[in-house]
Design brief:
Layout: E1 4-10, H1 12-17, H2 26-29, E2 33-39, H3 41-53, H4 57-74, E3 80-81, E4 84-88, H5 95-100, H6 108-120, E5 125-129, H7 133-141, E6 146-147, H8 161-177, E7 183-187, H9 207-218, H10 224-227, H11 236-241, H12 255-288, E8 294-298, E9 362-363, E10 379-380
Parallel strand pairs: 1-2, 1-5, 2-4, 5-6
Antiparallel strand pairs: 3-4, 7-8, 9-10
Helix pairs in contact: 3-4, 3-6, 9-12
């Protein structure tokens, strides 16, 4: 399978401060791709200006040397460097490119970016090589792939004191010429647009009825007769000496307690239905709310003052403040029927034994351990039929 071909652009500083492009290990930077070199027209023009107007003698000499190499390569029938194609773009980008991407025709970085964008429009894979942070940010904002060169490829270029003063004055002069903020609103992915998709709204037509039916099945009204049919271990002395089949106990629940529980249960049904209505409203709102995070970014070289941002949303949008968002409603708690055997606090309310399961049950030494049950293995079952015994204990410390 043939490798992907990438057209690589360079900014001017790569030629001035790093080794020549033929001396760089591109297989390490692009291990799975083949590359072609592309030289934008603004790069040749800037190098030509630096050849005569460079800040230092070293810079002027470097620019002259790079241009002479380019000249020799361009005289060949097939422009190549180390078996890699090199293309010199001779035409500046069209004005439409600058207007569409809001780039400045007088800014060298913007002219380079415009050349890359126009070149990319012909379905070429492109990449920009630069170590300039400002240019990196601009390129990423336009969706251009960017790579930096390792410092191992940088050329040592120490300046004397006189040259340092000239460089500083040149920098200050440039800052004075272009001293203005360049503000832009972007989203959290550093792009100036965002694409959002809404799923098809959920159908909640039967949600409330179905869920409420399950709640009523799970929490049903209680009757005095049914509750008092279940035999709890409530009288220890009788259990020690009498078989369960001969035990008889009076009902422990009272009718008033059952009635109070059932009234609370019906009130719980009503509250749960209200909760479900609120919860459905919450889910519907959540499906239609879009959370946008917008950032103001300054691509200029000075801070902006007295900034006023005006946002326009077309019809169909409703802007919500933070305090207008609906919080997820809280589920109501079901009622509980108080256990009439609270003195047996080491049994849970549901740990019940039905009388038809046993012919005889004796618990050894349990009376002496009631206040501090430390040995629950002294449980013996005599003459059993087919049965299962499950006991849960809450042991006090």
């Amino acid at each position: 399978m043939s490798k992907k071909v990438i057209s690589v652009f360079f900014d001017t500083n790569i030629f001035l401060h790093f080794k020549f492009i033929s001396e760089i290990n591109w297989n390490e930077i692009f291990p799975e791709s083949d590359i072609n070199y592309v030289i934008a027209p603004c790069i040749v023009k800037e190098l030509d200006e630096l050849k005569y107007k460079g800040i230092t003698k070293k810079q002027r000499g470097r620019a002259k040397n790079i241009l002479e190499r380019f000249y020799k390569i361009s005289e060949q029938d097939k422009c190549k460097i180390d078996n890699r194609n090199i293309e010199f773009i001779s035409i500046e980008p069209s004005r439409e490119v600058f207007e569409d991407y809001k780039l400045s025709e007088t800014n060298v970085d913007d002219r380079l970016l415009a050349s890359i964008v126009e070149f990319r429009s012909n379905s070429f894979n492109v990449c920009l090589i630069t170590n300039d942070l400002g240019l990196i940010l601009k390129a990423k904002n336009l969706g251009i792939d960017v790579k930096r060169l390792n410092e191992e490829y940088r050329i040592e270029n120490e300046l004397d004191e006189h040259e340092k003063v000239i460089v500083q004055l040149q920098k200050e002069n440039l800052e004075m010429k272009e001293k203005k903020p360049n503000l832009k609103l972007i989203f959290n992915d550093e792009k100036d647009f965002i694409e959002c998709n809404f799923n098809k709204p959920t159908n909640f037509s039967n949600y409330i009825d179905d869920y409420l039916r399950r709640i009523k099945d799970a929490y049903q009204p209680k009757t005095l007769e049914k509750e008092n049919k279940i035999f709890p271990i409530s009288k220890i002395n009788q259990l020690l000496t009498t078989p369960i089949s001969k035990l008889s106990f009076s009902p422990e629940y009272k009718k008033e307690e059952i009635d109070i529980y059932n009234r609370k249960l019906h009130q719980f049904y009503t509250e749960y239905e209200k909760y479900l209505n609120k919860y459905v409203s919450y889910l519907k709102l959540k499906e239609t709310v879009l959370n946008l995070q917008i950032y103001l970014f300054n691509f200029g070289n000075v801070a902006g003052n007295n900034i006023r941002i005006k946002l326009h949303f077309p019809d169909g949008f409703e802007i919500l403040e933070e305090n207008e968002m609906m919080n997820q409603p809280k589920k109501p708690e079901p009622p509980e029927l108080r256990s009439p055997y609270s003195f047996l606090d080491f049994f849970s309310t549901k740990d019940l034994i039905n009388t038809h399961m046993f012919n005889s049950l004796r618990i050894q030494n349990l009376a002496n351990q009631l206040n501090n049950p430390v040995n629950i293995s002294d449980l013996s079952i005599k003459r059993p039929t087919v049965m299962m015994l499950v006991l849960k204990f809450k042991l006090s410390s």
